[in-house]
Amino acid sequence: MEQEFITIGEAARLLKQADSVVMRLIKEALQAGVEKEKIMKAEMRQGRMMYLVSKTFLIKEASKEKEAPQEEQAAPSLEKEKEFIPPSEGSMEERMIETLQKIIDTKDQQIEDLSGKIDQLIERDHETNILLKGMQDRLFLLERENPQDIPEAGRKKKS
């Protein structure tokens, strides 16, 4: 009989647990030496790679957890709570403010650099316009000095 594989989200809904609980079950099974191919597989669905979990494995693991005494389950969770001490809200806000301030300072520096480059480009454009104007003036002077280059019709009109 072929195993039925379901997505992590479907597995979480089946067990009425969070996705992280399903992932923990998979991680623990892999660490215990269960072959990955027996409990998981990757499959393309709707143009995305999705990881699927064996439904029979999940049901078996969920029943094992329910059979375990409540005291054994409570003890590890207390240890985890002791290990993880969330930072106070003030320090979290201060770190966020510091990070945002650094980002703003970096953006300000980038804007200042780009502004300088734009100013240089405008100056170069102005210089180019001045050079072109000088070239045009010289070209017109050369045309006025050589009347023989002017076509016959043009000379008659000027006379």
Count of strand segments = 3
Give the overall form. Answer: elongated
Q: Quickly count the domains.
A: 2
Q: In percent terms, what proportion of residues is strand? A: 5-15%
- Overall mean confidence score, pLDDT: 79
Number of helices, where a helix is a run of at least 4 consecutive DSSP H or I residues = 7
Biggest sheet details: 3 strands, antiparallel
Order of helices and strands: EHHHEEHHHH
Low-confidence stretches: none
Structural class: mainly alpha
The CATH topology of the largest domain corresponds to: Multidrug-efflux Transporter Regulator, Chain: A, Domain 2
Q: Indicate the CATH class of the largest domain.
A: Mainly Alpha
How far is the N terminus from the C terminus?
A: 109 Å
Q: Widest sheet: strand order?
A: 1-3-2
- Can you give the helix content as a percent range? over 70%
Radius of gyration: 38 Å
The CATH architecture of the largest domain comes to Orthogonal Bundle
Write the layout of secondary structure elements.
Layout (H helix, E strand, L loop, with lengths): L4 E3 H8 L3 H13 L4 H4 E6 L2 E7 H13 L2 H14 L5 H57 L6 H7 L1
Give a verbal description of the structure.
This protein has 159 residues and is mostly helical. The protein folds into two domains: 5-69, Multidrug-efflux Transporter Regulator, Chain: A, Domain 2 (Orthogonal Bundle); 89-148. 73% of the residues lie in helices and 10% in strands. The chain has helices at 8-15, 19-31, 36-39, 55-67, 70-83, 89-145, 152-158, and strands spanning 5-7, 40-45, 48-54. A three-stranded antiparallel sheet has the order 1-3-2. A hairpin with a 2-residue loop joins strand 2 (40-45) and strand 3. Helix 1 (8-15) crosses helix 2 (19-31). The protein is elongated. It starts with a strand and ends with a helix. The mean pLDDT is 79.
